[in-house]
């Protein structure tokens, strides 16, 4: 190894990372030092002639980095670590021994894309996974986000809610919370258009609220009319007002047709 | 096809035209009954290339390259050797370097005599050609190399050799840096990629392709650039690197003058990227373009099938049901059987049937790289199912929906119906207390959305018209001919008028007699 200092730092990081509970601050500080070390030894963006053992160590450091960033709830930092890992996962795939943290990390990335509602990116990433399609449903780390996405798209929100506890790794929980916020908003927008009125009690179950005060607060945020005496939420009907003819648009379209026709004749 | 652009005088053009047509026609007549020997064909191709280089007219080179596929199948060691021997002077350095790629002729010393003896017997090469005294243009050498590479592809043992040869050839092209090389270079890059792929190391070619793409873009080698962009996209998609492929597309401009096959491929790759990114309507337009630009189904059945497979899936994902006639097409019928089954399942809106079909054809879909796309159809199946229910019932309990669509729980059914209402799939209402869904018939068939759809369709037709106008090709200087004809007609009219005048006079004169 290029520097002995890097090796001691790496051992230190492993020790701190494996200790429970993990001292995230210390991990962060060690990672910062290690990253500088990696840059100095030219391992952060490795070239083909790098030593195999060194590459494995570098990959390990970056993987720990991704997991630490999730634990510290620092998504941009996770993003950076993950994109640095890409080189190790794709370009050096055939040379390096497989890492046991690879799929958890990839799964975390998928969940992140899902919570940020970047569905297109989610699918592109999914396509580029080095897995045959039938293994996607077998690998627990990947199957979890894939199922979540499918249920979200179908509208089986209760399944998403129930799957919240089945996360394959503790780090997944961090994203699951923000996912629940997204789901609630989705359900709320569905309810607005699908129901005329809804009893408070049922609304609470549909939105997965346990206490009525939470529900009332949420209803206020969405601007719903709550009738406390009858125990009902009323949803305003929106789509009866739009009878106006979009003149501007029609005129513009007709002008385009005229111009095109003129070109043809 | 055979107008000569260099001729300056109108009459000459016409004359040459006729001549060209005649030779063309006679050639065709010749070709049909007795196809020329490959050696003779190579020879005439070389003449065409030289003419193309001399006249700065890439059309002739294109014509040579069009015959490549047919010619490729008939090549063997002897034919290529003969052709090389025939077209290069005996002491040429290029010749020896070209010949070094072929295994030594079995009776090495006799081969020359045999050739000489065999040649006059050939059906077309009846005119004994004098041995050339100087090397032909470098394009010819590259053309020979192209033939060699294709020939090496034919057998497995030569894959490593073909990689080596194509690399060397590419270096050579870049050193020469000739504009007239462009069409042949594009083919060479294709052959290079194929060499690498056959050798099983497609990814290794990527840095070289990227560098070449940059150079080609700077030098405005349109054909090469188009070919290279397609090579790169193919390489990315082969390894499922959709992100990189998308970035490449956004950073490059595909040359508008590229040939139709290249454009068709490009649109196919674009369609694939867009479909993966869930941008189905864009994917749909791209694939439509690809189908329209593709060579006829009988000529390139593989491409035709691949595009249609993707096209069917994208149509399904958009919520449309593909045309039944697509699956009756003779070229497609067999290849698309699995997709036809899927379409049937989606159409009936039955999740269980869909799942069964999916499992049945999983391996084929996997091989086509369609599996993940098809899995996405699940929600479409549900949506179709709900829509059918909403059309046939005015009121249906959530429990029944759940049973009919094979959903897991009533709770799910409620969410799913809610989402369908919000997404505008159906028009209806859920009455939670009673646990049923009420559907209103379609109330307003006419609204702003109708004019939008109408506008979209008109836009499509106009686009189609404009594309076809752009795709038309006109022979160079054709307008001059027309002008000349018009001129001639005017002249004749004048003469006629004069004659009539005189004739009239004559008539009158006669009448007087």
Automatic annotation (TrEMBL), chain A:
It holds the Pfam family CSN8_PSD8_EIF3K. The keyword Cytoplasm does not apply. Transmembrane segments: none annotated. GO terms for biological process: proteasome-mediated ubiquitin-dependent protein catabolic process. PROSITE patterns: PCI (PS50250). InterPro entries: 26S_Psome_Rpn12 (IPR006746), CSN8_PSD8_EIF3K (IPR033464), PCI_dom (IPR000717). Residues 76-252 form the PCI domain. One of its GO terms (cellular component) is proteasome regulatory particle, lid subcomplex. Belongs to the proteasome subunit S14 family. This is COP9 signalosome. It comes from Boletus reticuloceps.
TrEMBL record, chain B:
Gene3D superfamilies: 1.25.40.570. Residues 1-40, 109-136, 486-513 are annotated as: Disordered. Keywords: Proteasome. Residues 8-33, 486-501 have a biased composition (Basic and acidic residues). Residues 502-513 have a biased composition (Acidic residues). Signal peptide: none annotated. The keyword Isomerase does not apply. GO terms for molecular function: enzyme regulator activity. One of its GO terms (biological process) is ubiquitin-dependent protein catabolic process. PROSITE patterns: PCI. InterPro entries: CSN3 (IPR050756), PCI_dom (IPR000717), PSMD3_C (IPR013586), TPR_PSMD3_N (IPR057985), WH_DNA-bd_sf (IPR036390). It holds the Pfam family TPR_PSMD3_N. SMART domains: PAM, PINT. GO terms for cellular component: proteasome regulatory particle, lid subcomplex. Residues 264-444 form the PCI domain. SUPFAM superfamilies: Winged helix' DNA-binding domain. Belongs to the proteasome subunit S3 family. This is Diphenol oxidase-A2. It comes from Boletus reticuloceps.
């Amino acid at each position: 190894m290029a520097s002995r200092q890097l090796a001691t730092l790496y051992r230190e990081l492993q020790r701190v990372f494996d200790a429970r509970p993990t001292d995230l601050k210390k991990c962060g500080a060690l990672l910062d030092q290690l990253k500088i070390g990696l840059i100095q030894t030219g391992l952060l963006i490795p070239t083909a002639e790098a030593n195999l053992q060194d590459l494995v160590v570098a990959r390990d450091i970056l993987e720990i980095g991704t997991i630490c960033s999730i634990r510290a709830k620092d998504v941009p930092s996770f993003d950076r670590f993950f994109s640095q890992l890409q080189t190790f996962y794709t370009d050096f795939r055939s040379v390096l021994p497989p890492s046991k943290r690879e799929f958890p990390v990839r799964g975390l990335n998928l969940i992140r894309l899902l919570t940020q509602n970047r569905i297109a990116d989610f699918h592109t990433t999914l396509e580029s996974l080095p897995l045959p399609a039938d293994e996607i449903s077998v690998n627990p780390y990947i199957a979890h986000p894939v199922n979540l996405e499918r249920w979200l798209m179908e509208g089986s929100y209760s399944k998403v809610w129930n799957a919240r506890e089945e996360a394959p790794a503790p780090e997944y929980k961090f994203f699951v919370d923000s996912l629940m916020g997204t789901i609630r908003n989705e359900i709320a927008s569905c309810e607005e258009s699908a129901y005329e009125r809804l009893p408070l009690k049922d609304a609470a179950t549909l939105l997965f609220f346990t206490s009525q005060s939470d529900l009332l607060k949420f209803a206020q945020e969405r601007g719903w009319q709550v009738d406390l005496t009858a125990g009902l939420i009323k949803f305003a009907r929106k789509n009866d007002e739009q009878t106006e003819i979009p003149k501007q648009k029609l005129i513009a379209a007709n002008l385009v047709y005229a111009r095109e026709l003129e070109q043809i004749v | 096809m055979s107008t000569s652009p260099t001729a300056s005088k109108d009459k000459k053009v016409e004359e040459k035209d006729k001549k060209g047509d005649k030779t063309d026609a006679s050639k065709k007549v010749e070709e049909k009954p007795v196809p020329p020997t490959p050696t003779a064909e190579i020879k005439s191709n070389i003449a065409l290339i030289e003419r193309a280089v001399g006249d700065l007219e890439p059309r002739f080179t294109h014509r040579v390259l069009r015959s490549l596929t047919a010619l490729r199948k008939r090549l063997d060691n002897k034919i290529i050797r003969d052709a090389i021997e025939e077209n290069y002077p005996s002491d040429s350095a290029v010749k020896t370097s070209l010949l070094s790629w072929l295994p030594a002729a079995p009776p090495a010393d006799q081969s020359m005599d045999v050739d000489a003896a065999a040649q006059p017997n050939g059906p077309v090469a009846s005119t004994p050609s004098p041995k050339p005294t100087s090397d032909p243009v470098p394009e010819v050498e590259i053309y020979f190399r192209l033939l060699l590479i294709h020939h090496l592809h034919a057998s497995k043992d030569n894959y490593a050799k073909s990689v080596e040869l194509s690399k060397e050839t590419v270096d050579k092209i870049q050193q020469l840096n000739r504009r007239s090389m462009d069409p042949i270079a594009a083919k060479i890059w294709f052959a290079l990629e194929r060499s690498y792929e056959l050798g099983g190391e497609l990814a290794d070619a990527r840095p070289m392709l990227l560098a070449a793409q940059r150079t080609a873009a700077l030098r405005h080698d349109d054909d090469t650039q188009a070919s290279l962009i397609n090579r790169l996209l193919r390489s990315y998609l082969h390894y499922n690197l959709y992100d990189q492929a998308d970035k490449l597309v956004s950073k490059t401009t595909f040359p508008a003058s590229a040939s139709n096959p290249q454009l068709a491929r490009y649109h196919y790759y674009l369609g694939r990227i867009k479909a993966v990114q869930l941008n189905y309507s864009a994917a749909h337009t791209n694939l439509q373009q690809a189908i329209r630009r593709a060579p006829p189904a009988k000529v390139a059945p593989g491409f035709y099938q691949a595009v249609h497979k993707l096209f069917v899936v994208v149509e399904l994902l958009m919520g449309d049901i593909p045309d039944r006639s697509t699956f009756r097409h003779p070229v497609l019928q067999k290849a698309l059987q699995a997709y036809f089954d899927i379409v049937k399942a989606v159409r009936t809106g039955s999740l269980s049937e869909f799942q069964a079909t999916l499992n049945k054809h999983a391996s084929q879909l996997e091989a086509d790289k369609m599996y993940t796309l098809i899995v996405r159809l699940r929600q479409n199946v549900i949506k179709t199912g709900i829509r059918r229910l909403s059309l046939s019932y005015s009121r249906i309990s959530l429990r029944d929906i759940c049973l009919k669509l094979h959903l897991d729980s009533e709770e799910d059914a409620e969410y799913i119906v809610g989402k369908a209402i919000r997404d505008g799939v159906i028009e209806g209402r859920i009455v939670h207390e009673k646990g049923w869904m009420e559907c209103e018939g379609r109330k307003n068939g006419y609204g702003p959305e109708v004019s939008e759809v109408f506008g979209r369709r008109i836009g499509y037709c106009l686009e189609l018209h404009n594309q076809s106008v752009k795709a038309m090709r006109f022979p160079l200087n054709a307008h001059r001919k027309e002008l000349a004809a018009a001129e001639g007609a005017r002249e004749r009219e004048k003469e006629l008028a004069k004659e009539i005048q005189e004739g009239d006079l004559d008539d009158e004169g006669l009448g007087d007699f």
